[in-house]
Design goal:
It comes from Arenibacter troitsensis. By secondary structure, the chain is an alpha/beta fold. The protein is built from nine helices and ten strands.
Length: about 325
């Protein structure tokens, strides 16, 4: 008896291993995958400007990073006792203007350096809905709780998304001809836009992404389809009934691992996971001989792993 439809998956060529260098950009689901890669100590740059939901925000980051177009005082503003920038998530906001500008410009440099040496770039698109400043026409990455009357909300056309993706890929490949680019659509539903509007948004993203895939310049990982078709139950969602819960994230991660991570890395991943669990261990008594012996064994495991992979930090 078959009780679940299965999304067909094939192992990717040029899979990830511990020699890979990864860039992960995009919506909050990019953070879910990025956090897993970080947990297993793969080398990865994850969303240096924070979560970026729509394609034009990601395109803007890549473009400014590669062209090294630095941020200036005119591009930040003071609101709710913090300095903000429309191009970045509020996670980067600061009480000091100089600190925000420093974070933005160091983020641009870091992004360029990582893209130039990356083996893989993963881009996750969350929504096709954007907010545009009425005064300047600028598309913003984050509204920062600025009154909605300041913005014009619009749905990006499929053609505009396709063009944005083409520009992204061209910029990346101009500085890194060997990089593997992987596109995916976030399974997180943006229900604040409306139920029908969210479906329309995802349809635009998926249609645009597959036009790009046909050119052969990128590949696709079906995270959206896995959530919609294999995890068709609210027990796989968080309390908000919008975001995938830990069980769903782990499920999609296992699928991602099967497709994108080389089996030669599995043993090392298990060793890293064992260390991570050891570091999370909370003893009844920190002064006991048993715990001291445990810490010594754990330290030896870390030392041995770092001899092979010096970049790993615990």
């Amino acid at each position: 008896m078959k009780l679940q439809t299965q999304v067909p998956l094939n192992k990717a060529t040029n899979q990830i291993d511990y020699s890979s260098q990864l860039v992960v950009l995009g919506s909050c689901f990019a953070n879910n995958i990025g956090d897993k890669l970080a947990y297993y100590k793969f080398r990865a740059l994850q969303n240096p400007f924070g979560i970026l939901f729509h394609p034009l925000a990601i395109e803007n980051l890549i473009s400014r990073a590669i062209q090294q177009k630095q941020y200036t005082e005119e591009e930040v503003f003071f609101l709710n006792e913090r300095w903000q920038c429309y191009d970045a998530h509020s996670d980067l906001s600061s009480v000091r203007k100089e600190e925000l500008l420093g974070s933005l410009n160091s983020g641009l440099l870091e992004t360029k350096l990582w893209i130039a040496k990356a083996s893989h770039v993963f881009i996750t698109l969350g929504t096709a809905w954007t907010y545009q400043l009425k005064e300047s026409g600028k598309e913003v990455a984050n509204c920062h709780k600025v009154p909605q009357m300041v913005f014009k909300k619009q749905l990006l056309s499929i053609d505009r998304i396709v063009q944005g993706l083409k520009d992204m890929l061209h910029l990346i490949q101009a500085v890194n001809t060997k990089v593997k680019i992987v596109l995916t659509v976030s399974p997180v539903r943006h229900l604040k836009d409306g139920f029908v509007e969210n479906q329309q948004s995802k349809a635009h993203l998926i249609s645009a992404v597959h036009q790009i895939i046909k050119t052969g310049n990128a590949t696709y990982f079906p995270s959206y389809e896995l959530m919609m078709d294999e995890l068709r139950d609210y027990r796989f969602y968080g309390n908000d009934l919008v975001h995938p819960n830990d069980l769903a994230v782990n499920y999609i991660w296992e699928k991602f691992k099967t497709v994108w991570i080389s089996e030669t890395s599995y043993k090392t991943m298990d060793e890293v996971a064992a260390i991570q669990k050891g570091l999370d261990h909370r003893p009844f008594s920190q002064e006991s001989e048993k715990h001291k012996e445990f810490l010594k064994t754990l330290g030896n495991k870390i030392t041995n792993l770092q001899k092979e992979y010096p970049f790993m930090k615990f």
